[in-house]
Amino acid sequence: MVKNLVIVESPSKSKTIEKYLGSHYEVTSSKGHVRDLATSGKEGLGVDVENKFIPKYVINKDKRDVVKELKQLVKESDDIYLATDPDREGEAIAWHLAYILGIDPESVCRVTFNEITKEAVKSGISNPRKVDLNLTDAQQARRVLDRIVGYKISPVLWKKVKRGLSAGRVQSVAVKLIVDREEEMAGLDAAEHGLPSAYAGFAMLPEYIEEGNDPVVVSGDTPVAEAIPVKKVPAFEEGTPKFTKIEIVCKESKFEALKNAIMKLGITGMTVSHVLGCGIQKGKPEYYRGVQVEANLFPKVQVDIVVSAVPVRRVIDTAKKVLYTGHIGDGKIFVYDVENVVKVRTGEEGFDALQDVE
User: Fold this and answer.
1) Each residue of 63-73: pLDDT tens digit?
2) Pairwise CA distance, residues 69 & 72, whole Å
3) Which 3 state secondary structure label does DSSP give 35?
4) Does 88 fall in a domain?
5) Domain of 152?
6) CA–CA distance, 314 with 333 (Å, rounded to integer)
7) Distance between CA 171 and CA 153 in Å, rounded?
8) How many domains does the chain have?
9) Residue 79 in 3-state DSSP?
10) Listed residues 105, 137, 169: the one ending a domain
């Protein structure tokens, strides 16, 4: 009795692999796919499009004798190894074989060889695994898309180009996705309605509140000679400590890391606000129905800190280290002079107001 049966995908590999494995193994071939989608049912798709796209499989007519032979060999064997090719198609063939031959795909029945050498073959047999259902599902999704798209487009090719051409394969799906995107950017409204956009003639205006008072009109007619020069006038005595406000705008996901890093510097107080960042990156425009979108709003966090004893540069370097990823949207840091700080509860001002002590 044959103790170990190895089923490979290609018959050209059978003899070589059997020679490497020895007399305790019999190696045979499925000769490629043994099952495929049926051509019966609605539109001949073999896919129930109205019930979660469940596929219906049938054994290929030219593989019925192969399946019959494999079933007999399985009955005569103690252990069965599915050694189809190590790719998505090979994984699907192994899954179909397991179903047809009554092998549990959750058992360690799947082996793969990345090359047909004695070492690779023996290593593969020594390390069997379960059938990878993720790879199998990926192949089934590809095949279902092939069938749904190809079966409907192929007749068009027969009429317009040449009979016998096939529009199957996922390339058809990929092309449609690309065309949809291009038409969106070009603006279908121009082709369909002769308009640059379905929103032509409309403009989004900001909301405003009427307060009942006419706005003060600034004429700008004051002669330059009479204009008051702008000067920085200190509001407090000379020699007082310098205060600096550091405003950090960053992604919400980075806030916890930023907060912990700032607190390690000895800064125990900060003001945090949820804000929306508005902007557009040069060279990366977005389009909606052919019209370029001018700006996007993104949720951000704004962290405000006032420091005196802690060096400003140290805070900036710490924030940059935490926030930097090298991608657009890492954030911004703004630095402002602060004239004074007042603690409302105690009435303390200046440096004392910043101290978190009683």
Assistant:
1) 999 999 999 99
2) 5
3) strand
4) yes
5) 141-188
6) 13
7) 12
8) 3
9) strand
10) 137
